[in-house]
Amino acid sequence: MERWVGKSVRRVEDKRLLTGKGQFVDDIKLSGMHHAAVLRSPYPHAIIKSVDTSEALKMPGVRGVLTGEDVARMSSPFLQAVEGPLEYYCIAVDRVRYVGEGVAVVVAEDRYLAEDALPAIRVDYEALPAVVDVEEAMQEGAPILHPKVGTNIINHRDLRYGDPDAAFAQADVIVGAKFFFPKYS
Questions:
Q1: Digit-coded pLDDT (tens) for 122-177
Q2: Alpha-carbon gap, residue 89 to 100, rounded angstroms
Q3: Cα–Cα dist 110/33, whole Å
Q4: Please, what is the Cα angle at 74 between 69 and 78, to 5 degrees?
Q5: How far, in Å, CA of 83 to CA of 70, rounded?
Q6: CB-based contact 35:109 (threshold 8 Å)
Q7: pLDDT tens per residue across span 19-57
Q8: Which of 14, 46, 85, 100 is the most buried (most CB within 10 A)?
Q9: End-to-end CA, the chain
Q10: Model's pTM, two decimal places?
Q11: 85-136 pLDDT, tens digit each
């Protein structure tokens, strides 16, 4: 570790990248390869009443369209870090819970055909109230994101190490603040 920390490291990739010769995943072309594009929700919280993919499936080069209903039928939910009746799939099934959540996936012969087919998919949403503040989401009567759970509090833990009350009592200054972080996607 000592040989790296605080030391200048010779970069060997710069020439390749600066001359446009870098190889990235998007540069890989395989025989018979298809591309996918994801239709994303414009709503922060909504029930998906129906998804009509019929027009997208008629478009040139489109090989298939997956909906949440298809994914739920063909796969299992992702494993969760907390216990409970949460079910997360790779795209939304029955309900969206944030703006930009995937609702359908178009598979086509190339990226542009896949992207061009997205507007042909018709989704009927029933918009639901949304809460974007974590403290509001924990209040009684807040819109519930996971009805099977019955609450927005999925996991609660009270972690204490040492004697925080004594530490505060001995502190010269106590600073309190709330921090808010934007989404990172």
A1: 999 999 999 888 899 999 999 999 998 889 988 888 888 999 999 999 999 999 99
A2: 14
A3: 8
A4: 90
A5: 25
A6: yes
A7: 999 999 888 999 999 999 999 999 999 999 999 999 999
A8: 46
A9: 32
A10: 0.79
A11: 888 899 999 999 999 999 999 999 999 999 999 999 999 999 999 988 889 9
Token pair 């039928």 is at which residue?
A: 73
Residue 155 structure tokens: 């996991």
Domain residues of the chain, as ranges? 32-130
Distance CA 146, CA 185 (A): 22
Architecture field, domain 32-130: Alpha-Beta Complex (3.90)
Q: Which whole-number Å values give the CA distances from 123 to 40, 50, 91, 116, in the listed order?
A: 10, 6, 14, 16
CA atoms within 13 A on the CB side of 136: 6
